[in-house]
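Table S2 (continued). Query chain:
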Amino acid sequence: MSARQGTVPEPAGVARGGKRVYGYAIGILMLEARFPRIPGDMGNAHTFPFPVLYRVVTGASPDRVVRHPDEALLRPFLDGARELEAAGVRAITTNCGFLVRYQPALAAAVRVPVFTSSLVQVPMLLGMLRPGRAVGVITIDAASLTAEDLAQAGIRPDMPVHVAGLEGEEHFTDAILNDRLELNPERAALEHEAVARRLVAAHPEIGALVLECTNMPPYASRIQAATGVPVFDIVTLTHWVYQSLVRQPFHGYL
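Corresponding output:
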């Protein structure tokens, strides 16, 4: 029987389920903290022009994750990653660059891409720079960022990478790692500028900077203005991954 004779035509397509929520391409594993998260911070949803889905990992305080790594935290992060995947996200990141320590385990635990830290950009950036150039890494606590941590991001000891931390400054590291309820953004910005200037002055061959800490992107523009080099962080990486997940057709032929 034809459609003219009363049949109902098949729809052009059907909506398929299987996820708990929809519209979230990026899931973010969050530390348990209360310090202020200003725009640009990974934990402020206004940082992104697209929706993100958060999952707080209970017990994962900033100080515990950065300065007192505890293998007992791995299981809650694995559970959190699996929950985000089950909820429907298409890639997972975190809000602490030191969680690069869990990169292999988290990537193995789910079927979606995992990028735990902005540090995974370092090898790619070195490949973009001409020979003799280096990448600078600014971290919240240089003493806690070990060679083993860097290795999890694919950074070998022979790579030209120079690290500087903010632990010698008075405000930013204290506010984040000690989970203070107040943060002075201008004071923090000045500290970032000072550390970045010193790092580039000590190593003028630096051709790009990577901010390890996910609380540092609010100050990226100030760092770039102070040093004159490209600045990469977890936000630039998240945008890059997001764009790969939600490709749009080019107009004209397709």
